[in-house]
C-alpha cells in the first residue's frame, strides 16, 4: 500500500441485499467506493437462489463505474457456497468475495481451491478474498487466517455478530453496551467512564491486516439515521488506521467518506514533514523540528501514508 497508483480506496463499503434489485440499482448510482452484494445474513433462506441470480445479473448488467465490487457469499459449510463460487468466480467485474464467519485456515484453503477450479480465463485479474472476522474463534485465529491464501486482500470486522459471539449485552450494531463502563471513586464522588467494546478486536484485526499487507475494514454503525454516531464511529476507525468502514445505508456514505479523507490541514502538515525530512537527510540528520514538534522517520512514514491517501482521493 505504499504507492498511490496501487492503493485502492475503500473508505465506504456499502452493503446491499442482492435479492433487492431496486436497492442494488441505487447502490450502483451511489458515491460509495465499494459495494458488497449480500447473499448471506440479509437474505432469507427461501430467497438464496434469487439473491445469487440477482448478484450475477447485477454484476454483468449494471454500470458500477470505478467501484470495487464484492459479494458476500454464505459461510463455509453451508449448502450454498460451492454453487455461489461456481457462478461468481468467472465474472470479470467481481473484484472479491467476502467470506463470512472466517474461523479456520483450512476452510479458506478449501474456498481458494473452489475459486481455482471455477475462475476460468475470462478474468483480467485474479478473484480476491476478503475475510469477515466476526466470531471469538475468528479473532483468536486472525493472524493465521490472514496468511491462509494468497488471494486474501482485506480483513473486515463483523461488529454485530462478534458482539453476539462473545455474549455482549448490546442492542446496537457497532456500539458498546451501556453497562460496559468503569466506575471509580474520585475523592467523595463516583465517576463513570464509558469503555469501548471494540477497542481490542479492532486493534487485533488491524495489526493482522498490516502484518500481512492487507486492507482493514471496520464494521458498520447500525444507527444509520444518526449522522453524529455514523461520523464519530468512522472517525475512530480512521484515526486508528483502518482503510474504510462498511455502511448499511447510502445516507452514511458522505459522513463516513469524510472521516477517512485527510483534511487540507493534515495534507499540508504531512507535506511539510516530508519536505523537512528530505532536507534533514540532505544535511545528514535523522530528525528535524516541524511546527515545534520533533520529527523523525516514524513521522515520515505516517506523513507519506496521509499523502498517499490524498493522492488516491484525487484520482
Automatic annotation (TrEMBL):
- Pfam families in the record: HpcH_HpaI (PF03328)
Q: Which Gene3D superfamilies match?
A: Phosphoenolpyruvate-binding domains
GO MF terms here are: catalytic activity; magnesium ion binding
Boundaries of every HpcH/HpaI aldolase/citrate lyase domain copy: 11-250
Question: What are the binding positions for Mg(2+) in this chain?
Answer: 134, 161
Q: Which InterPro entries match?
A: Aldolase/citrate-lyase_domain, Citrate_lyase_beta/mcl1/mcl2, Pyrv/PenolPyrv_kinase-like_dom, Pyrv_kinase-like_dom_sf
Instruction: Please list which residues make up the signal peptide.
Output: none
Keywords of this entry: Magnesium, Metal-binding
Q: Which residues form a coiled coil?
A: none
**What residues bind substrate, as annotated?**
72, 134
UniProt protein name: HpcH/HpaI aldolase
